[in-house]
Structure formats: structure tokens, C-alpha cells
Amino acid sequence: MDVKIDTKEKFSVITPNFNLNSANMSDELTELLKTYFDKDIPHLILNMKNVVDADLESLTKIVNLQASFYNENFSFVICEMKESMIQILEDANLIDTMNITPTESEAWDIVQMEEMEREMLNDFDNN
Known about the structure:
Blueprint (H helix, E strand, L loop, with lengths): L2 E5 L4 E5 L6 H12 L9 E4 L8 H16 L4 E4 L3 H9 L8 E2 L2 H23 L1
Parallel strand pairs: 2-3, 3-4, 4-5
Antiparallel strand pairs: 1-2
Helix pairs in contact: 1-2
């Protein structure tokens, strides 16, 4: 599987270099992303800039995985998704459940804001 992984201090950026229009490719990507549940820095940005085609089944797997990350209190932001894929998600009424940004820079900002929010909530819960 052809992906670029860029590890930062508070998160990792995963950039697939393939289309998500087959079950095999989306399953491989999903399995790779799931490994971050067990990492010291589990927060992810999925940069979709190189993905030019995806089907609803593959995008639904990403939607479900993103929800799993947030259920574990981990960040998972998707950025630079092509308009055609956003339209597929809108048509399936899934877009409102997702955290998508137009740029990677905005995704970084969201992950960092969510990290600050988690820290503040931890401080509040500990008082």
C-alpha cells in the first residue's frame, strides 16, 4: 500500500497515494489507520489530496473509523477531499457526521484545538 506517513509531535498525517474504489484498498487503509489506536500519539489527519476516486462503501468505512476514533477520545480529521467524494457523502447523508477541512493546515488547527479541549476537560474532571 502506497501511503506517506508524516509524524508530528501531537498527531500523524497519513496521505494515501491510491484510489479508494475497491474493497481491498479501503480495507488496507482502514487496517493501517486502526493501528493508531495503540500508538503513543493516536491522533490522525487523513489527507485525501491524492485520492481522485472513491466509492460509497470505502467512504463509509472511513466515516465509521472516524467515529471510532472520536469514541476513544482521539482526533481524526480528513482534509483535502475531492468535491466528488464530498458529494457522495452528502448524497448518503453522511457528511454532517464527519470532520473535514479544505486544507491540511486547518486540520492541524482542529487537532490542536481538540487536544487543548481534552486537556481542559481533564483538568476540570480532576478538580
